[in-house]
Amino acid sequence: MFMGEYRHNVDEKGRMIIPAKFREELGQSFVVTRGLDKCLFVYPYEEWNKLEEQLKTLPFTKKDARAFTRFFFSGASECELDKQGRVNLAAPLRQYAQIEKECVVIGVSNRVEVWSQSMWEHYVGESEESLAEISENLTDFDL
């Protein structure tokens, strides 16, 4: 399980350190793709394969299913850690998530998310204001 929040920088070549606590579970190679809320999703192959199987079950006759599948897979990139524990984030992924220098890497159960620091701070600020309402909407989950 991935959890925690870490702040890092992306260098001029687009490389970013993956937190040491995440490296073992991610493995030497993994998948990075466009995520929701303008962040990047990082999946170990085991989780990526599960997600792929679920997305295959979506009916291709439905416009929303086709759009979501295209969005998710067209942005996907296979990545590997270098000897320093860094990953090279492809330019289109960095542009999508508006990551220029400072970023935040968070663990979210079965995946890692990478956010630009400014987008993360904005998201957290908005979420904190409506957390009570969000939790009320999740009452069916017995949280």
Concise synopsis of the structure shown:
The protein has about 140 residues and is of the alpha+beta class. About 40% of the residues lie in helices and about 30% in strands. The model has no long low-confidence stretch (mean pLDDT about 95).
Model description:
40% of the residues lie in helices and 30% in strands. It is an alpha+beta fold and 143 residues long. The strands form 2 sheets. It has a 6-stranded antiparallel beta sheet with strand order 1-7-8-4-3-5, sandwiched between helices. It has a two-stranded antiparallel ribbon with strand order 2-6. The radius of gyration is 16 Å and the shape is globular.
Shape: globular
Report the structural category.
Answer: alpha+beta
As residue ranges, the low-confidence spans are: none
Q: SSE string, helix = H, strand = E?
A: EEHEEHHEEHEEHH
What percent strand?
A: 25-35%
Number of strands: 8
Q: Helical percent range?
A: 25-40%
Strand order of the largest sheet: 1-7-8-4-3-5
Main sheet record: 6 strands, antiparallel
Rg estimate, integer Å: 16 Å
Cα(first) to Cα(last) distance is 19 Å
Mean pLDDT: 93
Number of helices: 6
Keywords: Cytoplasm, DNA-binding, Repeat, Transcription, Transcription regulation
Family: Belongs to the MraZ family.
Domain SpoVT-AbrB: 5-47, 76-119
Subunit structure: Forms oligomers.
Write the layout of secondary structure elements.
Elements: E1 2-9, E2 15-17, H1 20-26, E3 29-34, E4 40-44, H2 45-56, H3 63-74, E5 77-80, E6 86-88, H4 91-96, E7 102-109, E8 111-116, H5 117-129, H6 131-137
Antiparallel strand pairs: 1-7, 2-6, 3-4, 3-5, 4-8, 7-8
